[in-house]
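So, does this match?
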Amino acid sequence: MTVEQLGEKLPAYAKDLKLNLSSVLRQVELTEQQTWGAAVACAMASRNVDVTAAILGEAKQHLTPQAFDAAKAAAAIMGMNNVYYRFLHMTDNSKYATIPARLRMQIIRGHGSDPVDFELWCTAVSAINNCHVCAASHEKVVRDKGVSEETILAAVRIASVLHAIAGVLDAEAVAAA
């Protein structure tokens, strides 16, 4: 399935999402690698088969194999970290913050792609996964490395559109069943 076909699957009530889908994948604030890496990571984080298939299928045309794998790694590691660190801030028990995570996170330093892009992808996935701590932490890293707020929001736009499309497609599948 292509991204265009993904947009065609959307019902009339989600026309804004269809139009936003094509525009967020062409934002001038992002490089091609930033765009498609964010799309890969966010598609995976959105957990919808059609969204993931369409984005991963097209992303291979825009990313090196190394960047493609790094974007998938960003989704994978943030899927774990966002749950863990979000829990630490959901509870009033401050003792949890003093206990080591004891979770392997080597990919954050060993993904082999552009470190700024990887952090940007982690920021976007953290927005989907609603992890305040991880979103703030990764956003600060990219800002400290000179990335503008406009660029960061462009990646988060990709996250918001893909996540919304995944929700619509999931709901439509339930309604059709």
Notes: The radius of gyration is 16 Å. The chain has a mean pLDDT of 96.
